[in-house]
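Late entry, evening session. Most of the bench is empty. Finally got around to the prediction I had been postponing all week. Sequence below, unchanged from the version circulated by S.P.
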Amino acid sequence: MKFSLALTLALSFAAPAAMAVDHEVKMLNYGKDGGMVFEPPVVKAAVGDTVTFVPENSSHYVQSYVVPEGAGAWKSKLDEKWTVTLDKEGIYLYYCPPHLMMSMIGLVQVGKASNLEAVEAKAKKLKPKLVMKGDRLDKYLADIDK
């Protein structure tokens, strides 16, 4: 009886980790939305999920620009696969620094868009740096569940 109870408790704590999903985002020179893109550009995830950024072409890396309060900022290395764990609810806005002017940006929404106002304020400051395809950011923000 004690063994059964201990096993049940152990499995109940392990279950959420086992249900976490890894979302793969490719860093591409050319994708469905034109040149220099993250694909998919918008990911809907749950707390505890991970996102793995995969450089399919050279000269890409990923850096967070806005993260939910309490989440840590992140920055990968050039041409290396990078995985980030989404441990806070909200919106994560990120970009590829070498290709920011070409609007190589993306969003991850984890649960509710609790930090949408902060993301929109920072996006407004980022917009002048988006020389090409600046409408991508507006399009991606429109995909956020409010």
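Two things to note before I forget:
The two ends are 47 Å apart (CA to CA).
The mean pLDDT is 91.
Will write this up properly tomorrow.
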